[in-house]
Design brief:
- The chain is mostly helical.
- The chain has one domain.
């Protein structure tokens, strides 16, 4: 959480009043939102996502008292742990996305091609965390 807020405040400090969110075929921004809209929408997405995932985690943990079998209890504990990992992965994805927007809108002469790893790191991490979910569900079925 602290890393997200630090990244958001740092990127917000360096953004212009208009933040480019899309580009034309030459790589120049052609659709814009205000800096405040970027800040509050990023913050809102972060808060809603984390509140939802942590609430689901708490529900899984609290509902384990009603579970009758040891297998179902282990599945609930694994899913609760997965939800925390998913929340962390989404937070990293949000940070990577904000960093990309910061670089995209920077007045410095950054070549975005050097930072293309940020674009691929988020979806790759999401694919890995969903692969872990499939593994957890398949392991419990066996």
């Amino acid at each position: 959480m602290v890393l997200f807020f630090a990244a958001l405040l740092l990127i917000y400090a360096y953004l212009d009043d208009r933040v480019g969110i899309a580009s034309n075929e030459w790589g120049m921004p052609n659709e814009f939102i205000t800096r405040e809209t970027f800040f509050y929408s990023s913050l809102l997405a972060f808060v809603i996502t984390n509140a939802l995932l942590y609430s689901l985690n708490k529900l899984l943990i609290l509902s384990r008292r009603s579970v009758k079998s040891e297998k179902d209890l282990a599945l609930r504990i694994d899913l609760a742990a997965w939800l925390l990992g998913f929340a962390g992965t989404l937070n990293l994805f949000f940070i990577f996305t904000m960093a990309f927007f910061g670089l995209f809108n920077s007045k410095e002469n950054y070549t975005i091609d050097r930072f293309i790893g940020l674009v691929y790191a988020g979806p790759l991490l999401l694919a890995l965390i969903f692969g872990l979910l499939v593994y957890i569900l398949m392991k419990r079925r066996a």
